[in-house]
Design brief:
heterodimer, A: 253 residues, 13 helices, globular, B: 342 residues, alpha/beta, Rossmann fold, four-stranded antiparallel β-sheet, 34% helix, elongated
Chain lengths: 253, 342
C-alpha cells in the first residue's frame, strides 16, 4: 500500500478540480435544502412525533441512489475507456491500491457532501433559538448511519464502474443495484408472502439487509454491531469483487 | 570471474492466445543492454500484445520473458520498476497539467521528491515541453501529447524503455526531435520501439525485428535483413550498343551476374537493363569498365538498395506464403530459429 497516499491525493485532487463535482454538489445541496425546507414547513404547521433530524434522514435513499452513481460511475470505467489504466498498472502500483484510492476519494466526497448538510441544522438552531429542534441523538445517529452505509453504497458504485468502460452503463448498473438493495429490501420486508414457514431464511435475510430498519436503529441511537458488520463486510466483499473484475478484464483484454 | 550481466530483454518461446485465437506464436528474441531495437509488423501481427507482455500488463499463455534477468511472470512488481512504457495511442489524462502529470507519475514510479523536480525539468527540456508545462494535457496538440508520453516513459530513467508507435501523428520536425531523443538514449537505456514509419526505424534502430501473424519472420540489422531477405544485389543500367555480347561480358565479371530484365531501346538507342547478382560486394566499377571495353555506351549505372519497406514487405509476404503452403520451408531465416509455419 506504498502508493495509496499518492493515488488517493491524486484522485481527490482530480475530483476537486472537476466542474462536474461542483455541479453535483450544488444539485445535492439544493435538493436536500428543499427537502429540509419542506420538513420545516410541516413542523411549523403541526406538532410531529419525530425530530426534524429523524425526518430528514428518512430521505437518505434518494442521494444514495442518485449521487453515488454520479460520484463513482467515472472512476474505473473512464480509466478503461481512455486506456490510462494501462499506463497506471505498468507502474509499480497494484490493482488493489488503484481500486482503494478510487473508493477512498469517492467516499470522502460523499461524506463531505452529507457533512455540509449539517449547516441546515446549524441555521435551524441559530434562528429558531429552540434547542428541541436540534435533537443531538438522531442527528449524530443519522450522520453515523450515512457514514457507515456510505461505505457499502460507494463500494457498489465502484464495483459497477469496474464492470464496463461506458460511464453511463456503469451509472445505470450502480443505480439499479443500490435501488435493489435499499428499496427492494423495503418492498420485500412489507411482503406478506415471505411470512410462510419455508421462506423464513429468506425473511431473515431480508430483515438483515433492511436498510431503512438500520437507519431507524441508528437514528434512535442504537448502534447494532450486526448492522455495522453488514455494511463493513458488504464493503470488503464488493471491493474484492471490484479488484477481481479489473484484473479479470486485464486477463481477457 | 564475474558472470556477464544478462541481456536487457530475453523472450523465449512466448505464446499468447485470446479465446482460442493465437496472437503471439512461439516468439523468441533477445535485446542487448543499451541497444535500440525496432519492432515492425503489419496491423494485428502481435506487436502490441508482445509489448504488453514485456511490461507485465498482460500475462503470457506460455513462454519465458525476462527483463534484465528478472522473470516477468513471477516478479511483475520488480519489472515495473525497470521499464518505462508508452502504450499504443498514448493514453493520457485529459484534465491534468503536464507538470502535474509528470509529478504524479514520478511519485508512482518511486522517484524521490528531492530528485523529482530537477528530473521533471530535465525531461521537459529534453522533450521540448517546457513551454507547455502548465498547460492542460487535453488542450495539447497531438505532437505535444506524444512527447508527453515519451517524457513520462523516460522520467524514472528505467533501464528498459518500451514504446508502441511513439512517432505516430507527428510532423517531420517533431519526428526529428523524437528520433534525436531516442538516439540520445543509445548505450544508456535499452529501447524497443514499434513503428510503421520504416525509414524512422532504419535511422534510429540498431536492429530490427519483423513480426507477422504472431511470429518473428526476420531479425537483424537493416543491412543483414536486405541480404537475408533478398539474397542478391540489383544494378540498373542505361546503355546503348550491340547487346548480343552482354551476357558473355556479365559472366566474365561474375558467374552469378545476369540480366533480370531489359527494356525496349528508346529513340536515342538507350535502354534500361536490370542486372542481378548474388555477390554482396560492389561490382559497379568492374561492370562499367567491362561494358565500356566491349564498346557499349553507358549513361547511367546504379546499385539498387532495397529500402526497409521492401524488406518488410518481402519478409511479411514470405511468412504469408509459408502459411499458405505449409510444405514449403521458410528459407533464408538464418538468424532466428522460427519453427516451420503450420
Amino acid at each position: 500500500m506504498k502508493h495509496f497516499p499518492t493515488l488517493l491525493s491524486h484522485e481527490l485532487r482530480m475530483l476537486l478540480v472537476s466542474p462536474a463535482t461542483y455541479v453535483a454538489a450544488t444539485l445535492f445541496l439544493g435538493f436536500m435544502g428543499l427537502i429540509f425546507t419542506k420538513i420545516l414547513e410541516l413542523y411549523s404547521g403541526s406538532a410531529q412525533e419525530l425530530s426534524p433530524a429523524n425526518a430528514f434522514f428518512e430521505f437518505f435513499w434518494l442521494p444514495a441512489c442518485v449521487m453515488v452513481p454520479l460520484l463513482t460511475m467515472k472512476c474505473l470505467a473512464e480509466e478503461r475507456r481512455l486506456g490510462t489504466i494501462e499506463t497506471l498498472l505498468t507502474t509499480p502500483v497494484t490493482t488493489t491500491e488503484v481500486v482503494l484510492a478510487k473508493f477512498g476519494a469517492a467516499y470522502f466526497l460523499y461524506t463531505a457532501l452529507w457533512a455540509s448538510t449539517g449547516g441546515f441544522f446549524y441555521f435551524l438552531n441559530k434562528f429558531s433559538g429552540d434547542a428541541r429542534f436540534l435533537d443531538s441523538g438522531p442527528l449524530v445517529g443519522g450522520y453515523l448511519f450515512i457514514a457507515v452505509s456510505g461505505l457499502f453504497f460507494i463500494a457498489i458504485g465502484v464495483f459497477s464502474s469496474s464492470l464496463t468502460r461506458n460511464q453511463s452503463v456503469a451509472g445505470i448498473i450502480s443505480c439499479v443495484l443500490l435501488a435493489t438493495l435499499i428499496l427492494g429490501s423495503r418492498a420485500l420486508s412489507d411482503s406478506v408472502w415471505l411470512e410462510q414457514g419455508v421462506l423464513q431464511p429468506a425473511r431473515a435475510m431480508v430483515d438483515y439487509a433492511y436498510v431503512f430498519g438500520h437507519r431507524d436503529d441508528f437514528t434512535r441511537g442504537v448502534i447494532d454491531t450486526r448492522h455495522v458488520l453488514f455494511y463493513v463486510s458488504g464493503t470488503v466483499l464488493t471491493l474484492i469483487f471490484s479488484i477481481l473484475s479489473v484484473e479479470a478484464k486485464l486477463l481477457h483484454a | 570471474m564475474s558472470e556477464p550481466p544478462p541481456p536487457a530483454i530475453e523472450v523465449s518461446r512466448l505464446v499468447k492466445t485470446y479465446g482460442g485465437v493465437t496472437a503471439v506464436s512461439d516468439i523468441s528474441f533477445t535485446v542487448a543492454r543499451g541497444e535500440i531495437v525496432g519492432f515492425l509488423g503489419p496491423n494485428g501481427a502481435g506487436k502490441s500484445t508482445t509489448m504488453r507482455i514485456l511490461t507485465g500488463y498482460l500475462p503470457a499463455t506460455s513462454g519465458i520473458v525476462k527483463i534484465c534477468g528478472v522473470p516477468v511472470a513471477t516478479r511483475p512488481d520488480e519489472i515495473k520498476r525497470r521499464i518505462g512504457y508508452m502504450p499504443e495511442n498514448n493514453p493520457l489524462p485529459e484534465d491534468m497539467r503536464v507538470s502535474e502529470y509528470m509529478y504524479f507519475r514520478g511519485r508512482l514510479k518511486e522517484v524521490s521528491r528531492r530528485k523529482l523536480g530537477p528530473r521533471i525539468d530535465e525531461v521537459l527540456e529534453l522533450c521540448d515541453l517546457k513551454r507547455v508545462r502548465h498547460k492542460i494535457i487535453g488542450q495539447l496538440s497531438k505532437g505535444y501529447r506524444q512527447r508527453v508520453g515519451i517524457a513520462e516513459a523516460i522520467l524514472a530513467e528505467p533501464p528498459v524503455i518500451i514504446m508502441d508507435e511513439p512517432t505516430i501523428g507527428l510532423d517531420p520536425h517533431q519526428i526529428l526531435i523524437v528520433r534525436d531523443l531516442i538516439a540520445s538514449l543509445r548505450g544508456r537505456m535499452t529501447v524497443i520501439i514499434s513503428s510503421h514509419i520504416l525509414p524512422e526505424i532504419e535511422m534510429t534502430c540498431d536492429r530490427v525485428l519483423i513480426i507477422n501473424q504472431g511470429r518473428v519472420v526476420a531479425q537483424g540489422t537493416p543491412a543483414d535483413l536486405r541480404r537475408e531477405i533478398f539474397g542478391h544485389s540489383t544494378y540498373e543500367l542505361e546503355l546503348a550498343g550491340a547487346a548480343d555480347s552482354l551476357n558473355g561480358t556479365l559472366t566474365a565479371i561474375d558467374p552469378s551476374l545476369q540480366v533480370a530484365s531489359s527494356g525496349e531501346p528508346g529513340p536515342d538507342g538507350f535502354r534500361k537493363v536490370s542486372l542481378t547478382t548474388t555477390r554482396p560486394d560492389e561490382l559497379g566499377e568492374s561492370l562499367l569498365s567491362a561494358l565500356l571495353a566491349r564498346g557499349l555506351r553507358v549513361r547511367a549505372l546504379s546499385r539498387v538498395n532495397p529500402t526497409l519497406e521492401d524488406v518488410f514487405l518481402a519478409a511479411t509476404r514470405r511468412s504469408w506464403d509459408a502459411v499458405a503452403t505449409p510444405a514449403v520451408q521458410v528459407s533464408g531465416d538464418r538468424k532466428q530459429a522460427t519453427p516451420p509455419a503450420t
